[in-house]
Amino acid sequence: MTKFGGTSLATAEQIKKVAAIIEADPNRRFTVASAPGKRFASDIKITDLLYKCYNAARDGEDFSGTLRDIQARFQDIIDGLGVKDFDLQSEIDTLDKNLRIFTKPDYAASRGEYINSKIIAAFLKREFVDAAELIFFSDDGLVDEEKTYGAIAARLGKLDKAVIPGFYGSLPNGEIKTFSRGGSDVTGSIIARGVGAIMYENWTDVSGMLSADPRIVNNPEVIQNITYTELRELSYMGASVLHEDAVFPVRKARIPINIKNTNSPEDPGTKISASLPPNLRLERLKHSPVTGIAGKKGFTCIRVEKALMNNQTGFGAKLLTIFADHNIPFEHCPTGIDSISVIVASDLFDPEHQGVIFDINKTLVPDSVIIEDHLALIAVVGEGMIRSKGIAAKIFASLANSDINIRMIDQSSNELNIIIGVDEADYEKAVKFLYEAIF
Ligand code: ASP
After folding, report:
1. Does residue 413 register a pLDDT over 80?
2. Helices in 292-424 by DSSP H: which ranges?
């Protein structure tokens, strides 16, 4: 089972590479396709052009120029592939008509994957199956698993090969609904699980997941093997290679994911699985117990101090309830003896700031409430750290030697990660030094 991202499908040339990859392995029976992405850095993705059309249509403005650009890009692909008898005009006319009557942004955005997948299916001479007939959402916006997996089994179970558009499905009333941006990864994961794939290959334009942000660290190593849990920790902290939600469907069925590069198909890429086989675990440990480093800026720490807090039952629960009442999820909650800190995303806290502090003072009557912002968090993640000694020493020594002040430390009790808080201004420097010390 394969999924190809937007850059892998941006031009006819790229689609030819994709076709060669698919045809090279008979196990690559089902393919999920994105809309054409960027051909060069300043290019615009088809999905963005479609949102632009929708916004103009909604505001009663002329969108014909943008629609013509979309049509021209698809026509280029059709011509470059030499696909005959593809009625692009009627697809564009339908889109044009629907944009003029009452329609939703999700419908407009979904047409990029819809048309692209139809073209790819025609080129590969494989069946096209509309995602609207396979992926079903309930009214609350969550995937209706029973209906979805039932439909996948019934429809794809009968087929040997097919191309399916990513990114969208349908609501109970038949309207189109998309996942959030980059959501074709999620479609791929659902289809892989639905057809019981042996592997979910996610083809993109990089040779796997990197062990640190390449904008900060020069040439970071590619992670060859990673567990779902490690991936989750690293993606949560900002490392992006897959849509955040894409792990969950395949994880339930223990189907491994392989991130591969369409432009360099021989590269092994990154394999994501439930656990590392013992031989790989040993190899990893010899190299480094850490799998990757990721981080984000934009956190605020609210520290509440109260003498003898340790004797009060329910203090922490009451504090967290205040954040929940203001709809602010908390990221971490390190505690001292007479103090407890809540770390939250600054963009969610700032607008609610006054109300939260008022409620804390009223409900908990603390000795003081201290707000510290401009905090960056860095996570050092690796299952190899479990029960192995000396990583924390390396981390802290490297930061001390680089003259970086650590503002917070949080090690998960499963020893899978160590999270360090530093000033936003020190963030890049800290990641660089940590990488050098650890790898
Ligand atoms: N085309 C959509 C986007 O640009 C979905 C995807 O490519 O995964 O976000």
Report:
1. no
2. 315-325, 346-349, 353-364, 391-401
Instruction: Residue 187: name the closest of 131, 107, 231 by CA.
Output: 131
Q: Which residues pair with 344 in a beta bridge?
A: 300
d(CA 170, CA 407): 46
**For every residue of 158-172, which 3-state class applies, written as one string?**
CCCCEEEECCEEECC
Is residue 383 over pLDDT 90?
Answer: no
Residues with C-beta less than 6 Å from any ligand 1 atom? 5-6, 34-35, 45, 47, 112, 166-167, 181-185
**How many whole angstroms separate alpha carbon 67 and alpha carbon 49?**
8
Residues 6+ apart with CB under 8 A from 43: 10
Residue bearing the bigger pLDDT, 5 or 313: 5
Cα 393 from Cα 377, distance rounded (Å) = 18
Asked if residue 261 lies in contact with residue 208, where contact means CB atoms within 8 angstroms, the answer is yes
Q: What whole-number distance in Å separates Cα of residue 132 and Cα of residue 167?
A: 10
For residue 168, how far is its CA from the centre of ligand 1 (angstroms)?
A: 10
Of 264, 240, 148, 202, the closest CA to residue 33 belongs to 202
Q: Determine the distance separating the centroid of ligand 1 and the alpha carbon of 20, expressed in angstroms.
A: 23
pTM to 2 decimal places: 0.86
Residue 185 near residue 246 (C-beta atoms within 8 A): yes
Query: What ligand 1 atom has the least distance to the C-alpha of 182?
Result: 8
Q: Give the ligand 1 atom nearest the CA of 187.
A: 8
What pLDDT is attached to residue 173? 95
- Tell me the pLDDT band of 278, cut-offs 50, 70 and 90: confident
Closest by Cα among 280, 281, 302 to 359: 302
Give the contacts of 143 (CB within 8 A, at least 6 positions apart): 135, 136, 137, 169, 190
Contact of 414 with 233, CB cutoff 8 Å: no
| Cα(200)–Cα(191) distance, integer angstroms | 9
Which residue's alpha carbon is nearest to atom 8 within ligand 1?
Answer: 182
The per-residue pLDDT for 388 is: 76
